[in-house]
Specification:
binds the ligand Nc1nc2c(c(=O)[nH]1)N[C@H]1C(S)=C(S)[C@@H](COP(=O)(O)O)O[C@H]1N2; mainly beta; Sulfite Oxidase, Chain A, domain 2; 5-stranded mixed sheet; about 5% helix; 3 helices; binds molybdenum atom; about 200 residues; 6-stranded mixed sheet
């Protein structure tokens, strides 16, 4: 006979979970988009890497599908306060797109279909920290959540995970993107609660 009541063992109790400061748990999957949801046909979809000298490498949807992908399970943290644990994604690690790219720049800006952008240090999209993700929970990523494909950088606040990503542009300086220009933190580490410039 088990000491624990049914359903107790094997479950993480909410009180056992360590969240970044100021965050609360959510079980649904909120949609946060600063503008309308772009709809991009897969045969028109392209992802590019552009160096600081303007050299461009591009991948079509079928190129992306042919690349080795990873299954990723990570917690995500939105600057508005919600955190969602154990989210499951599939995507191609960003370093796979950078293998043949020559650049001396230390920063990248992710650009989205629809105009959104966000800046990150190059080192934060390397070494298994960032993916071009195209599936969530075993299903193709829905347009609301950034499909066909989004940047996924779960160790930073979720605004860094650009939905509908279309390019990674190398930049010599840490040029602020959409939310960063509006006063949000340039780096955005949830564990250091870097919500706004100056945090
Ligand atoms: N292109 C684009 N990417 C974006 C956003 C956006 O408005 N446009 N919002 C960001 C913010 S603030 C968050 S919290 C997450 C939300 O992703 P979700 O809608 O899949 O939850 O996407 C980020 N990426
Ligand atoms: Mo957000």
């Amino acid at each position: 006979m088990s000491f624990f009541s049914p359903g107790f063992s094997g479950r993480r109790r909410q009180t056992d979970v360590e969240l970044p400061p100021g965050q609360y748990l959510t079980h649904d999957f909120p949609v946060l988009s600063a503008g309308p949801t772009p709809r991009i046909d897969l045969d028109a979809w392209q992802f590019s890497v552009v160096t600081e000298l303007g050299e461009r490498s591009s991948w079509s949807w079928s190129d992306l599908m042919a690349m080795p992908a990873e299954e990723i399970t990570k917690d995500i943290h939105c600057v508005t306060g919600w955190s969602k644990l154990g989210t499951q994604w599939k995507g191609v690690p960003v370093e796979a797109f950078l293998e043949d790219v020559e650049s001396a720049a230390d920063y990248v800006t992710a650009h989205s279909y629809g105009g959104y952008s966000t800046n990150l240090p190059l080192e934060d999209v390397l070494d298994g920290q960032a993916w071009i993700a195209y599936a969530f929970d075993g299903e193709p990523l829905t347009p609301e959540h950034g499909g066909p494909a989004r940047l996924f950088v779960p160790h930073l606040y979720f605004w860094k995970s650009a939905k509908w990503v279309r390019a990674l542009q190398f930049t010599p300086e840490d040029d602020p993107g959409f939310w960063e220009s509006a006063g949000y933190h340039n780096y955005g580490d949830p564990w250091r609660e870097q919500r706004y410039q100056g945090d």
